4-carboxymuconolactone decarboxylase
Amino acid sequence: MNKEKFEKGLEIRRSVLGADYVDNSINNATDFNMPMQELVTEYCWGEVWARPGLPKKTRSMINLAMITALNRPHELKLHVRGAINNGVTKEEIQEVLLQTAIYCGVPAAIDSFRTAKEVLDEIDKE
């Protein structure tokens, strides 16, 4: 493991997903899944998210589309919150999900709209 990339990844991951969520994921990792936590933190967040080529807001919007295509509602919830943290507006989330209806299929987009609404409603109550 590259300690420098892991630490940079941890910083970015916390800023996007929230320190509580990330710290909970790391602190509750077991011998079995800690290698995955390390891989995700170092490679996804410390290597790719740390690149200067795209702002975090754009990366979040791309993630929403890809996670919709993959039909991963748990990850979508997490990344809707992250997108808001990165400055993506509700209207932009709506547009991303409408775009996915065309390229990923209406059923995938409908599920993502439903999932995103749950998160946005939670955020509104905070």
